[in-house]
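Honest question from a wet-lab person: if I give you the sequences of every part of a complex, can you actually get the arrangement of the whole thing, not just the pieces? Trying it with mine:
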Amino acid sequence: MDNDTSPLPPDLRPPDADAEQDYERIWAALHRTDEARASEYDVDAEWTQLADRLDLEGDAPSAPEKPTTDRPARPPDQRKDARPSRYARRLATAVLVLCAVVAGAWWWQQPVSVTTAAGERTTITFPDGSTAEVNGATTLSYNRGFQSFPFVPASRRRVRLTGEAFFDVDNAERPFHVVTPNARIEVLGTTFDVRARTDDDTPETTVALSSGRVRLTPTAAATSSRSGVTLSETGHTSRVVADQAPTSPETIDLKYARAWRDGGFAIRDAALPTVLAELERRFGVPLSFRADPSETTPMTLHYAAEAQVEEVLRDICVIQGLSYRETSQGYELVRD
Amino acid sequence: MDAFEAIFRRLSEPVFRYVCGMVSDESLAHDLTQDTFAKLWTVRDRMASVESLRGYVFRMARNRVYNQHRDARTRRENRTQLQKNTPDASPPAPDEVVDADLLRDHLQDWIGNLPDRQREALTLRRQQDLGHDEIADLMDIAPSTVNNHIARALKQLRERLHEHRSDLRS
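Yes, you can. This is the full assembly:
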């Protein structure tokens, strides 16, 4: 827009006429500043700089975010100059992309649900910019746009979780809640891990805080009004089992909570059936155990990164005096 | 990748002007704008469906800005106290009409001293890129609250203007 004057919008006019002239003058001055900034902004230069930074020049394949993933070798540096003649065609593409996205707005009302299979991991970006890294056999759902109605922001951002995810919640004017089968976690700008698993019909929610502050409350009516626990220090962990009150925060080395995100595996002080269930979810491989679980002892395991399921099974067998063998789909543990 | 470039060419300047209105210096605004699009590029495969790309990108920029405020903990631009001690190098002659460019410079200072959300609402409203509802959505508040912020911001700016004028006359 190249108009020299940009008048004060009518709905911003002050009640008295004296003020109006001042407001007009202020508005005009602000407009001139905007115009000055706009004319100084060189989008070609900015694009070149960004493209360099992201390595978009040449035929580079799209770069994955995790550095541990293999990348095919890129062709040697091929700087291409700005191509203004192709801009029109690209703009047409972009307009199509933007139209398609905006036109699809009618379905925003449906809740979005993401489910990972056992052994699968992924990252979700929420409409407000917060992210969640998601472990295997997990379902996470939320209202599209965190809204219940169009253009009416919901009073809080709510995510339902069964499974495990690591949340990074961006600056929050609205509360951000994670709801599990038996508990609720309230957060405000922070990073934390939530593990909500239901084994043998007993739901269990465990929260480990990486940074910031969260509050964990069971959702069972009998206990929720009295018991909620605030985690405020790095490493603080608390657990809600079924309907019970959350355990007092203990500080745990966060390496256990973060192992799965680095491709590893960790579990603390757990009975063998629990460990096997967790391994199944993490690696997507059916595991069975043919013996009496009461003859086994609780274990703590930690593999910092890139664990293999056989490696873990081998160690378990050493600890518990068992052996394992392959079955048609997975593995089976037996007592010798 | 072509689509990403086109999105950048279309949205980066509006985002830049928005971020300029929110942070104290322009080179920081350049960085934060670039950061926003860099992040958009890295999450492009994992974006859950969004109802408005423009709103989504503005929201990402907003998060960058507020994270920046939080990390840097520089609150000097954001004090709500009046600053009566803005010294001028040499005060202009008393009969001089307030020079337009001088006013712009002062305005930038005064805007810097407004509360974050007033400044933000004022910035967004001046741009034609987002509608009233989209602004309210971006700021997580009701449209009427947006207007309240703007009204208060303009009122404050006018008061500063008056003080400035009476300083000139004295």
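Two things worth pointing out. Chain B touches chain A through 67 residues (CB under 8 Å). Helices of chain B lie at 2-22, 26-43, 53-72, 100-112, 116-126, 132-139, 143-169.
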